[in-house]
Write a structure and sequence with these properties.
With 310 residues, this protein is mainly α. 83% of the residues lie in helices and 0% in strands. It contains 14 helices and no strands. Helix 11 runs antiparallel to helix 12. The longest helix has 32 residues.
Length: 310
């Protein structure tokens, strides 16, 4: 009887701890969506610690926490921190869930994205394809996860100069997302942004502009005008205007974007400096040389500070 009570107590305690971990994880996801990365990191680490102690290191929920923390670092371009977490999450999921589980596909996709953005020698294409095969078989071809996999593979094709194939995949992804998530969903905006990038690089500006304007409207409506996601859309719109020589339209957008980034606690110095460089260029093109010099000095100060911190 004593052993039974003891086991029941342990199980009850584990259940309570898991409720806490779930709450921490969910709040961390909300904070990540708001680009409040420092707060999100603290909660992710707490959730991971609780799960490792209560469930053991090789449990699917531990893999979930590893994956979420890895993606949080990925969002901040801290790839050296992200990769070991994503690889460990994949290993745990394959061992505990089997090689053809949807969560395994998620880990494969995330790891492939990490490899793609770093332009590593190892091709991520087999990882994307395996993830898509698993998702198509387990959750169906019209699932938003499939749409995400198609969009990510499309950007790999774009990086390889296979733009026709990339646009074909993005159109498929957009169709699934609009059907399953609604026309004003942030994932729809992400797809539109990827398409805009391809058309802009091909100098097909008439096709690119309505895509980025629609994406910006979705993100501003969903997250608010000062959100990092909306700011990145503003940056792409300004770049589109700059590339066409429409400097008078690009200038006010970059000015507002810079103000937004500078008052956002988690905005990276690199993003702020990049915006300053773009703004300085536009100011010079519109013959505002004094203002351009001031912005250039500020950008150089950030660059020097970054160099000293390394």
């Amino acid at each position: 009887m004593i052993e039974i009570v003891s086991k029941q107590s342990r199980d009850q305690c584990r259940g309570q701890l898991e409720h806490v971990a779930v709450a921490l994880n969910n709040l961390a996801l909300c904070l990540r969506a708001q680009a409040r990365y420092r707060e999100a990191e603290t909660l992710c680490l707490q959730a991971l610690s609780i799960r490792e102690k209560s469930l053991g290191p090789e449990h699917p929920e531990v893999a979930t926490s590893l994956n979420n923390l890895g993606l949080l670092y990925f969002d901040q371009s801290h790839y050296e921190k992200s990769e070991p977490l994503l690889r460990k999450a994949l290993a745990v999921r394959e061992k505990t869930l089997g090689p053809n589980h949807p969560d395994v596909a998620m880990s494969l996709n995330n790891l492939a994205e990490l490899l793609r953005v770093q332009s590593r020698d190892v091709s991520p294409e087999p990882l994307y394809e395996r993830a898509l095969t698993i998702w198509t078989k387990t959750v169906g071809p019209e699932n938003p996860w499939v749409a995400a996999g198609l969009a990510n593979l499309a950007m790999l094709y774009h990086n390889q100069g296979r733009n026709s194939e990339a646009l074909g995949l993005l159109n498929r992804s957009l169709g699934i997302r609009e059907k399953q998530l609604g026309t004003d969903h942030p994932e729809v905006a992400a797809c539109l942004i990827n398409m805009e990038e391809i058309y802009r690089e091909k100098k097909q500006y008439a096709k690119a502009e309505p895509l980025i304007l629609r994406a910006l409207a979705i993100r501003q409506k969903t997250f608010g005008p000062d959100h990092v996601g909306a700011a990145k859309s503003m940056s792409m719109l300004a770049r589109l205007y700059r590339d066409q020589g429409r400097y008078a339209e690009a200038g006010p957008i970059l000015e507002r974007l810079l103000e937004t980034l500078e008052r956002t606690p988690d905005a990276s110095p690199g993003d702020i400096r990049s915006c300053m460089v773009d703004y300085e260029y536009v100011l010079r093109k519109t013959r505002r040389k004094t203002e351009a010099a001031l912005v250039e000095d500020r950008a150089m100060a950030i660059l020097e500070k970054e160099a000293r911190s390394k």
